[in-house]
Amino acid sequence: MSRRGTATAATAPASTRPGRTETVVTARGIGMTGGGLALTALGIGLASTLIVMLGIATLATAAVAALWLLSSVQLLRRRYRTARRVISPFPLVAGEAGTVHVEVASSHGSTRVPQLDIREQAAAELTGMRPTSASVTRRPGSVLLSYSLSPTSRGRWPLGPAVVRAADPLGLAWADTPVGAEELVPVRPRVVDLTAAGGSRLDGLEQISRGARRASADDAAVREYRHGDDPRRVHWPSSARRGSLVVRADEHAGRPPADLLADLPSPGEDLETVVAAAASLSLAVLADGHAVRIVAPGTRPLNRWAAEARDEARAGLLDDCIDLQPAHGSPSDALVDAAHALMSEPGSGSLLVALVEPRGEADAGVRMLAGLGAAGHAVALVREAPRAAETAHALERGGWRCARWKDLEDLPEAWAAVAKATERA
Fold first, then answer.
1. Are residues 233 and 293 in the same domain?
2. What is the residue range of 419's domain?
3. How far apart are CA 165 and CA 154, in angstroms?
4. Are residues 227 and 322 located together in one domain of the fold?
5. Using an 8 Å Cβ cutoff, are 342 and 370 in contact?
6. pTM value?
7. Predicted confidence (pLDDT) per residue in 262-276, tens digit
8. What angle do CA 344, 320, 206 make, to 5 degrees?
């Protein structure tokens, strides 16, 4: 599962300069103004003082309504300059509900807030393509707007600003005045937990990469105890021999790093499924103690996240997946370039995990990728679709351990199968 923040914090600037007010004249306002002009012109043409007076009175009424609206907008812009938005959880996760609380505060803190017509603008990707229904709570000096979000797609989507509507008493025109700032809300991909899948560790590949088995827990390196170390990591036998507290060094120290190659399909529903799979796999490899880097063909390699800083690394990997997009141009050429870069890059990851699209045995990208399996420390999950079998066979002939998967529901089984295959290496 993805890391979900439980604490609430402001995610947008608490105050901002007022944005541009949008003013709309209603059909009633257009009709009254047009009628007043017509009556005035008709009265002048007929030399009728009464008709002219009626026209002028109609226009004066419209003018008074306009002045009313203008003064209301100016009052709103002076009094309501602050909007504080809190999103929980933050960041959001595709397919999981979230909540937003927006507090619009008056510059006169203790002043009773009138019945404001207030709402929040949100991208359709954040609301599940449905209009939001907000509850409004009025407090001394502020209004609290609360509503739910149902994000459907990963990405960074606009939310806000809050908008306060003012109208004249006759309904001739209305104006929307923005309060607060717009922000881009990150939505992480949905992930599935692969750490519980049986045999989901890459021990076999690691032994090939290192040429030896990992040391047992009894052989773990120790170091002096430092303030803030977890007491559960104290190595009591060594502490007794030395006469001072020592702790086990990180149990993941020395494990080879891993590269996760995400061969992304064209934009569409399958793209989101593959990105979610890439996020899930990266977290599983990280949980096994390997530093992880995501490599997407057509883009520069992203940061490598160390296993020691587990929470930070999990958040970083999920944030990296927010912006993953398929390569421009030929996907096969992009895969060739990515495979070549991994093959020739000094200090590249010792382990390679790949999500591969079913491109067929003759695809140039698949042929180049097959060459990376010769060292024996590469595994691939090939998405189930036409030509998946021949793609997997081409990689297996190159030394890869492969499994096929169709959707996120069967990803744990496929990951367990390919990881168990490494134990027989």
1. no
2. 203-211+255-423
3. 31
4. no
5. no
6. 0.77
7. 999 988 879 999 999
8. 50
